Structures are given as C-alpha cells and as structure tokens.
Amino acid sequence: MELAESYMEEKKFVKIEQEVDFESTQETLEPVIQRSSAVSTFNGCMVGEHLMNPSEINGMPYFPSGTTCLLSKCLTQEVWNQCKDLKDKHGYSFKKAIFRGSKWTYLGVGAMAGSHDSYYTFAPLFDKIIEQYHGHKPNDKHISSMDYTKLDCPAFSEEDDRMIKSTRIRVARNLD
Question: Total structural domains in the chain?
Fold first, then answer.
C-alpha cells in the first residue's frame, strides 16, 4: 500500500511516498519525516479546484507558488487568525468570502464581500486588497469634483481629435 503525506515549508510542498502498513503508519512515517530536513508540520488547507464548498477550508489556505491573485498576497496568518471564524451581520462567513480565490487561484482578486457589512467585518483582509488594487488605505479620503475645468487632461493630437465625433461619460457612485 502507498501512503502520501504533504508537508509545507516556505509554501513549497514536498510529497513523501513509502510502502506502509496502515496499522503502523505513524511508526513508519516518523523516521522518514525526521530524516527529511525540508519537511515541517502542515496544518493548513491546500487550495485548488478540488474544493467544493467553503467548509472544506479547514485551515490557513496555502497557495501554489506563482499564484497571482490578491487573496494569496493579502491573506496572511495574522489575517486568517483574526477572521477565520467571523460572519458579517447577514451571516456571510469569512470562508465564503475567500472561497472563490481558494478554489480558482487564477482569479484577479479572489475575495468577494457578501454585503456592505463584509468590508467592515473582514476589514483586515479587504483593507489590504483595496490598498493593493486601488492604492487607497483605510483612512484615505476620496475627493470628488464635478468641475470639468479642474481636470488636468493632455490635449488630443490632431489625428485623434479628427477621429473623435462624440464622447459619453458615465459616472456611478455607491452611497452608504
């Protein structure tokens, strides 16, 4: 019989395979684990498309090297410890918020708020994501001015100016 155990060190996974008798698994693996200097205890959750629902995220998610979604960059052990058991006032859990990025690691952001309250409840994560994506820190103020004369826009080249017949501008705003 073959038993494979995954262990994590510096977000790189090592697979240990050895013929073992299931009745003496611990005794058989212990010498292998002790001989390997690249192995340490793994108490997290390996992310990927094998995840079927948020409840399967049973520990700190570990992302494969090369993952570029913002969730993988912003979800630290400290953030995980602060938020892992939280739900917003509508019952949306932190694990639901990170599920999409944990399942599909190729997503750009990888986290989704369930409601407006999620941004406050899971602020340790969403503040970092918003700062990475938009460059705004939690205490920054967005200054709006609808006065077009205050815009600092470069002039169009003559060629571009001839091509533009009309322009439509849409403005949207989220209000509390």
Answer: 2
* pLDDT tens digits for range 68-93: 899 999 999 999 999 999 999 999 99
Map residue 13 onto helix, strand or coil. strand
Residue 139 included in any domain = no
d(CA 73, CA 51): 20
Paired sense of beta strands 45-46 and 61-62, if any: parallel
Q: Closest by alpha carbon to 7, among 15, 18, 37?
A: 15
Q: What is the CATH number of the domain that holds 82?
A: 1.10.135.10
User: Predicted confidence band at 9 (pLDDT cuts at 50, 70, 90)?
Assistant: very low
Total residues belonging to the chain? 176
CB hemisphere CA count around 89 (13 angstroms): 4
Q: Which two tokens stand for residue 2?
A: 């073959």
Amino acid making up residue 172: A
> What Rg do the C-alpha atoms of the chain give, in angstroms?
24
